[in-house]
What we know:
It comes from Lachnellula hyalina. This is Secreted protein. Keywords: Signal. Residues 271-290 are annotated as: Disordered. This protein is mostly helical. It has one domain. 38% of the residues lie in helices and 7% in strands. The chain has eleven helices and seven strands. A three-stranded antiparallel sheet has the order 4-3-7. Helix 1 (2-23) crosses helix 2, helix 2 crosses helix 3 and helix 8 (179-195) runs antiparallel to helix 9. It is globular, with a radius of gyration of 18 Å. The structure holds protoporphyrin IX containing FE and 2-acetamido-2-deoxy-beta-D-glucopyranose (NAG) (9 copies). One 2-acetamido-2-deoxy-beta-D-glucopyranose (NAG) binds at residues 41-42.
Amino acid sequence: MFFKTVAAATTAAAVLAVGVAADGRPSNTSICDYYTTALLTNNTAANQMTLLTLVVNTAVIGNYTKPNVGISVPGILAKGTYNGTAVNLAPYFNGGLASTNTGGSVGRSVNFLDGGGAAPLMKNMPAMDNTSNQYTLITHLYEYFGVLLGCSMQGGGDYPGYTGHESMYSVHKFMDLSAAEVGYFIQQVAMSAASFGVAQDDLTVVGKALSSTFDVKCAPPTAVIMSQGPQLQSICIDETCALAVNSTCDMYNGTTVKPTVANATLAGNTTASSTASSTTSPSSSSTSTSKSGAVAVGMSFAAIFGGLAAFFL
Ligand code: HEM
Ligand SMILES: *[C@@H]1O[C@H](CO)[C@@H](O)[C@H](O)[C@H]1NC(C)=O
Ligand SMILES: *[C@@H]1O[C@H](CO)[C@@H](O)[C@H](O)[C@H]1NC(C)=O
Ligand SMILES: *[C@@H]1O[C@H](CO)[C@@H](O)[C@H](O)[C@H]1NC(C)=O
Ligand SMILES: *[C@@H]1O[C@H](CO)[C@@H](O)[C@H](O)[C@H]1NC(C)=O
Ligand SMILES: *[C@@H]1O[C@H](CO)[C@@H](O)[C@H](O)[C@H]1NC(C)=O
Ligand SMILES: *[C@@H]1O[C@H](CO)[C@@H](O)[C@H](O)[C@H]1NC(C)=O
Ligand SMILES: *[C@@H]1O[C@H](CO)[C@@H](O)[C@H](O)[C@H]1NC(C)=O
Ligand SMILES: *[C@@H]1O[C@H](CO)[C@@H](O)[C@H](O)[C@H]1NC(C)=O
Ligand SMILES: *[C@@H]1O[C@H](CO)[C@@H](O)[C@H](O)[C@H]1NC(C)=O
């Protein structure tokens, strides 16, 4: 399965490198459908799931598939720099920060790399099991980004629709994310897509949509998953974030809670407050090996083709 997929991806990448830029995507075909066909030939639910698996896994841990079009992707779990600001997202995923919304009034420490970390992702799997926090997060990312990219075959057993939380603000609110952090995440998604041959015009479309929907503060209730209706979607909420068009700051209550350090070793150097007051992680820890060697995390994969704007900076 793994090798078969990689072989198919290789062929597709080669095809895309040659054909996509010249021909372009028909306006009546979604980005998901178009690149599933280009890379994997048959536009089936299973192949759409494979496309999203490749893009999300690569965005999270960096490029791992043998053939790509020559674009190196560091990955969301790797330390980096965005617009001149150092970024380190791993502590939000490895339990280093008490930043997960589990329903209380402050964030809690949760290890989202508890399903084997990077190793299963490199085998095109979400986790080594199907009960870990990592499994839930990564599969939800496959589902969510599939909807964002218009996967027409999604919704059945081969590729379920999104079943996670409705409001992206609610999910991310105790992370108190900045413009540099969200911009870096979106940039990695865009670079992942680019590494598989997605054309710049398509990257720009998705990047703008991701940025305007999630990388702004006080965004008005917006429907992303149609069946879930309009929800608060601002993921960027700290003082560095751009204000959304038609902003509705009152709906966000105005108060933000900065995450505290739960485990200084895992958190590394972060800008978060070092006041310790966190809680326990639900699962045993796991240390994943990332390409840069330092980071260990499992991320939500979320962004598949985001922020191209950032990509071109
Ligand atoms: C375009 C930007 C982003 C999108 C669309 C996005 C989307 C998502 C989605 C769909 C989930 C799963 C929610 C669920 O399972 O109910 C999630 C979870 C998560 N995201 Fe993001 N995300 C984005 C940016 C970020 C950034 C910048 C970080 C910073 C580290 C981040 C960290 C996380 C973490 C730690 C979780 C797990 C939280 C939990 O399950 O409670 N995300 N994200
Ligand atoms: C898109 O439009 C072309 C030309 O009008 C048509 O041949 C094709 O079947 C359409 N594709 C879809 C998915 O509707
Ligand atoms: C596409 O589907 C056809 C018909 O079911 C099948 O013969 C072919 O092997 C499939 N190709 C790929 C790459 O899956
Ligand atoms: C990542 O992509 C770069 C650029 O194509 C390539 O040089 C490198 O070998 C890739 N890394 C892996 C692990 O595939
Ligand atoms: C980059 O940072 C500068 C200065 O902080 C800011 O004015 C600009 O809006 C930022 N650009 C992006 C794309 O985040
Ligand atoms: C989870 O894994 C177990 C053991 O491999 C398997 O029996 C079960 O069907 C799986 N459940 C799902 C929802 O995939
Ligand atoms: C802002 O609100 C105006 C008036 O309701 C509406 O026409 C416009 O489309 C909205 N813009 C965005 C980006 O939501
Ligand atoms: C705002 O605060 C109220 C009262 O504490 C709470 O019920 C509501 O869920 C909060 N809204 C958001 C978007 O956090
Ligand atoms: C912090 O995390 C490291 C690495 O997982 C672990 O070895 C250590 O026991 C943790 N410290 C505490 C206080 O939990
Ligand atoms: C933390 O910062 C110090 C000083 O800048 C640096 O020497 C150290 O390597 C950093 N540690 C981590 C884990 O990034």
